[in-house]
Amino acid sequence: FSAAYQNADEPDPSLRSFQLDSGHRFSVRSLTRLGLANVADALANCGRQLRQLMNGDCAAFAGLATILLVYFCPEEESLPLCSPGEVYKQHHNYIEMLKSHCCSQSAQSSGNRDSTFLSRVLQQKSVIRTVTRDVLAPSLIARLGSRLSPRVIDMCSRLIRS
Fold first, then answer.
1. Do 81 and 68 form a contact (C-beta atoms < 8 A)?
2. CA separation for the pair 38, 48 (Å, rounded)
3. Is-annotated flag, keyword Transcription regulation (predicted)?
4. Is the N or C terminus of the chain more exposed, i.e. has fewer CB atoms within 10 Å?
5. What does the alpha-carbon distance between residue 58 and residue 115 come to, in Å, rounded to a whole number?
């Protein structure tokens, strides 16, 4: 699931909150009770840093974020993008993939798009969901189970079963 941080610049931490894409809201106070206060602070700081980093260029940033998401290797907890040259190379590949998939007349006229790089990228979403289901949700329940609300445990359990 994803969350949006609300009132990130609010000086009073008790007025800050996270809203899940399902509409549920968590105040910083409730996250503190769950033992997740450090996570809330880290997310807020990360959000501020991302806004500064993007510097208005949302499209390029979204492209790089997609590349990082797709190429992240959870087994090694690393990215194969060790140098600025590798980041540039992958960014270039991503742009070329978008151009060939979205702009090319042959890509639009041919019925077979499964051979495109975009199709292979989109196939990764099942891997990402599997990693979330098999690794992230169970570890969240195992580490914080006694401090999580029944609703959160139920949500994680449904994700694991799906």
1. yes
2. 15
3. yes
4. C
5. 28
CA distance 2 to 156: 13
Reported pTM? 0.31
Instruction: Please name the residue that has the structure tokens 């292979």.
Output: 120
As a whole number of angstroms, the distance between CA 145 and CA 153 comes to 7
What percentage of the chain has pLDDT greater than the value 90? 0
The token pair that represents 122 in the structure block: 């989109």
**Cα–Cα distance measured from residue 35 to residue 144, given in angstroms and rounded to the nearest whole number:** 8
Kindly report, residue by residue over 50-89, the tens digit of the pLDDT: 666 666 666 656 666 666 666 655 555 555 555 667 666 7
Beta carbons of 3 and 19 less than 8 angstroms apart: yes
Structural domain for 3, as ranges? 1-55
Whether 9 is in a domain gets the answer yes
Residue 126 is assigned to a structural domain of this protein? no
- DSSP summary character for residue 78: B
Tokens of 160: 């694991």
Q: List strands edge to edge, sheet with 17-20.
A: 3-6, 17-20, 25-27
Nearest Cα neighbor of 136 from 155, 156, 161 is: 156
Which tokens sit at 142?
């195992």
Domain total of the chain: 1
